Structure formats: structure tokens, C-alpha cells
Amino acid sequence: MRVLVIGGGGREHAIVHACVRAGHEVLCTPGNPGIGGMARVIGSAQDAASLAQLARTEAADVVIVGPEAYLAAGVVDECEALGIPAFGPSRAASRLEGDKAWSKAFMHRHGIPTAAHHTFSDLGAAGAHVAALTPPIVVKDAGLKAGKGVTIAHTAEEAHAALRDIFTQPGAQAVIEDFMTGQEVTVLALTDGSAYALTPPSQDHKTIHDGDTGPMTGGMGVICPFSISAETLEVVRRDIIEPTLAGMRADGHPFRGVLYAGLMLTPQGPKVVEFNARFGDPEAEAVLPLLESDLARHALDAARGQLQPEDVRFRDAASATIILAAPGYPGEPQKGIPLTLPEPGPDEVIYHAGTTGSAAELISSGGRVLAVTAVADTLNGALGRAYALADRVDFPGAQLRRDIGARIGAAPDPTPV
User: Fold this and answer.
1) In this predicted structure, what is the pLDDT of residue 146?
2) Alpha-helical segments (H) within 22-47
């Protein structure tokens, strides 16, 4: 098949890699230097209508949309209007991620477990609500913020500061939630709106510093699989995944694509932290290297409403992804830093998340710059290989966490295989 992947970050590099492994011809826009080493990168206007026209011009058999902003802009709708199968939710269905206030109301309406919450469109009312609460408090910008619009406020002053920042934007809304405790885990469902297949659960590490400290980022490292019991996974299916898909159908917005359920395993059971409408980033960089079956075929089947869940297969192995971020991230990342990458070994890959230039003259161009992934028989082995590879990258000033996997007692194997 000829596959068009839309996006240019680490997630899209992982999607392209999965499709190339399955033997497909892959095109990508806007792409990045790493993607350019394994697929044809196409320069193109990036508005929804132009991207759909590009898919038609290039005779793409299926389009896979990576970033949330393209979904919210209606790329899938534009492709479908031209008769081109596209893997991802419609503009209306992508509100599940793009509007946290709408998403919370959806969960309440359909009885999907999540944190108690209130939504505000006014700074004064939001501030008064905070004043009546006991920290810690979770404050969320209701709009699309690439995973960084969340503040876990340990004092009322931190909560008020987060609210002031949110309400500097016109038309802003803030969601204020109870703080949940427990292990956080991501479960991804590939779905055609009814049928679905789950990927192995994974766990991202969202703050910048070791020990889960510092500001929230787009994600600093992932382990996969994250071990949860069969009983808990069945609760996730029964109480979260299936009611969400049924609710979206009932509301007239069937959800096709990747349903990302960010969950907290609370003492009361799994609860939704947030829904996303696409592969997570960096979760994709850890989950997709374990995929044994054909991502492009699954995407095409799901876009046509014909997903065969039993065909979706993953390796019985473990993966670990370590993010190398620029100095200054997540605030004002320093760009233009020269990068020199080592040659990965078998079952290792360096995904480009924020790079530009060429293989010979590669430089950083974003906050999260590289996603270093390794696969091994055990999680400790995968962590050891990933850290060993990350330490061979020449990236002056790079930030990386040294405690990925530590929440569950995992540790890098000192003698990685």
C-alpha cells in the first residue's frame, strides 16, 4: 500500500517506522530528517484541505494522522469527503481531546469514572472555587496544549497562578479537578468506532526532573508494557473503553482511530485522567516497536469500519523510551544545537522528535529533540539498552531523566544485552 503519514515528530517517525517494517511505501508531510532516512518526505501546505488534496494527488491508499492539531482542524473529514480512507477521528469526535470541558461533561453524562471536577469560564469564579479547596489541586487549560496545559498545584498560590495564566487567553476555560493518587498508565485502543484492539499498557513520565518533580512536559520517557492485572484490564475495557466508544456513537460522533485513555489506578479503581484522540507521544515510540502485525492494514480497516481486533498482534517483549530534551525545556528550549547520533544496534532506534538539517549536519529544532528506544526480553534489559544508546548521543546540554521505570522498581540492566 501507499501510506501518507501526516506529522513531523517522534510519534510520526514511529508510525512511519512501523509501516516501513510492514513493507509499505510511505510518504510523510512535513516529516523530519529521521523520517527522511526511511520514507519520502513531501513539502506541502499544512491546512486540512491542502493535505487531503495531497493525499489524492499522491494516490494514497490510507492516511494516518499523527498530531492532535490536524485532527481538530478536520483533516480526516476533508480526506473522507474526497473518498480517501483516513485513520483518525473526525473534527467532532476529536473534541474528546481538544476540549477538556466538553470531554469532562461527556464522561459525566455517560458514567465514565474520572476525577470530580468543575469547569469555569471566569477567573473570579475559578479563584473562588480554589479558595474553598485543600491542595493539592489539578488545574487544566481546557484547550489543546500538547500535554503541557496541566498544573498539579500543591498550594493555593500555585493554583491561582495557573488560572491567571489560562485566563490571559480570549475565550479560555479552566477545569479544576480533585487530585487523584495511584499509578498512572496509558491504554491505547485502535478502533473503527465499535470493534477495538488494545495495545500493551504503557507508562509515561510527564515531569521534567527525576522523582516526578518540576514542570509538566509532553513526556520524558516511557516503559511498555506496564504490568496491570487481567482483572484491572477488564475493568478498563468494561467501564472506560467500551462506554466511551458507545457514548461517542450515541452522541452522533463515532470515534475511529486511536483512543488514548490516560488512566489513574486509584484505590477505588481505574479513573480517566484525560482522553487523547491519537497515539500518545512519546507512548507511540515505545508501543509501536512491539507491534508485530501491519499498522497500515489496521489503519485502513479501521477507517473503513472493518477492524479485525484478532489480527492486531504485539511481541512478547518489553521496550523503553528515553527522551533527550533541549536545555530550557519545557520553558524556552534552546534550538540550533549540533547533534551527532550513534548507529543503533538491533532492536534499537533513535526517533527524531525535534530536529532539522540533514544526517550530516543535524541540529535541534524543538523542546523534545530525540526519543531513544530499545526493545529487549525484559524491561530492565530494555532500559539498560536505551540508556546506553542515549549516553552515546552527542547533544550538548541535553536534559534526560535517569529514573524512567523506577516507580515500579525497574532499573537499567548494568550489562545490557
Assistant:
1) 59
2) 33-36
